[in-house]
Structure formats: C-alpha cells, structure tokens
Amino acid sequence: MTEDDDDENGPPKLPGGKFYMTPEGHAGLVQELAAQRERRHRTVEVVAWAASNGDRSENADYKEGKRLLRQIDGRLRFLGRRLAHAEVVDASRQTQRDRVFFGATVTYLNERDEAVTVTITGVDEADMALGKISIGSPVALALLRARVGDEVTVRTPRGAELLEVTRIDYPVVA
C-alpha cells in the first residue's frame, strides 16, 4: 500500500471524506509541507546542475535527483490531500467531558489490572511510545462514547479483552 492509497483505504473518515486531526497535528503537517516544498526546490536545483553536466544516462547525481523528486512529489500530494480534507478538532472545546471522544486522554484498566493511559488522536499523530493512539485503532473505537466506570470490549489478536474506563480528561480551554 502506498501513501496515495491511504486516503481511499485508510482510517475512518468523517462524512464528506474528512480526517480528524488535533490542532497540533495539523500544525505539524503544515510544517512538514513547507519543509518538503523547500526540499523540492533544493533538489530541483541539484537536478538542473546534474543535467547540465552532459550525458544523463550515466549521471548518478541526475538519476538520484529524479528519484528523490518523485518521492518528494508523492509526499507533497499526500500532505496536500490530507490537509485539504482535515477536520481539526480542538479537544479543549469538548462540552461532553464525561464521555470519551476524539482528543480525550483516557485511563483504563485492562484484564491484568494494569492502568493504561492513552490519548485518542488522528491517524497521522498516533505514537504508542507517547501514549497517542489513532481514532481508528481497535482500542479507540471500543472506548468512544464510554463513561467512567463503563466496561468495553476490544478485539485484539489474542481475542476479546475487557477494559474498564477509570478516568477521562480533556485539555483545558486555551
């Protein structure tokens, strides 16, 4: 699957083809888009210089530069589409703070009585090492709309697992 395929076959979208994203995640993609555009500009200059050196069929700088341009252009297309269809959700403005929605930080007990804390984010922001899980992950889908004290079932490769929601937090209004 390529990055281009992700839009069609990827994570759950809002009606109209939108993707949930936090303001921080959106800002990160905007920064990456600007950096990729600058990188493309520098690479075009290198390719133009390499092309001016003559025979392109045996010019490694030219071939590598063209390959890199294709890679950058693919990422630029992906970022442009993702940002065009982004639905930025500021979790600090959530009014139903007693239920789990996008942007919530949720603490739950698993079947081994281990407390696990995760924040539900957009697919592009998910990073399990930081406790950020994608809105489309099995755990997030199971937790959505739950309240403190609710038990939810999540389907895992090991089978169904019961989770008990013990805490729900949202960022404070900025």
User: How would you write the strand order of the largest sheet?
Assistant: 5-4-3-7-6
Low-confidence region ranges: 1-9
Order of helices and strands: HEHHEEEEHEE
CATH topology of the largest domain: Helix Hairpins
Secondary structure: number of strands: 7
Q: What is the average per-residue confidence, as pLDDT, rounded to a whole number?
A: 88
How much β-strand is present in the residues?
15-25%
Our count of helices gives: 4
Strand count, sense and closure of the main sheet? 5 strands, mixed
Highest CATH level, the class of the largest domain: Mainly Alpha
CATH-defined architecture of the largest domain: Orthogonal Bundle
- As an assembly, this protein is single chain
Structural class: alpha/beta
What is the count of structural domains?
2
Separation of the first and last Cα atoms: 38 Å
CATH superfamily of the largest domain: Transcription elongation factor, GreA/GreB, N-terminal domain
Percent helix range: 25-40%
Shape: elongated
Describe the overall structure.
- The protein has 174 residues and is of the alpha/beta class.
- It has two domains: 3-88, Helix Hairpins (Orthogonal Bundle), CATH 1.10.287.180; 91-168, Chitinase A, domain 3 (Roll).
- Helices cover 39% and strands 22% of the residues.
- The protein has a five-stranded mixed sheet. Strands 1-2 form a two-stranded parallel ribbon.
- Strand 3 (105-109) and strand 4 form a beta hairpin.
- Helix 2 (23-51) runs antiparallel to helix 3.
- The radius of gyration is 21 Å and the shape is elongated.
- Residues 1-9 have low confidence and may be disordered.
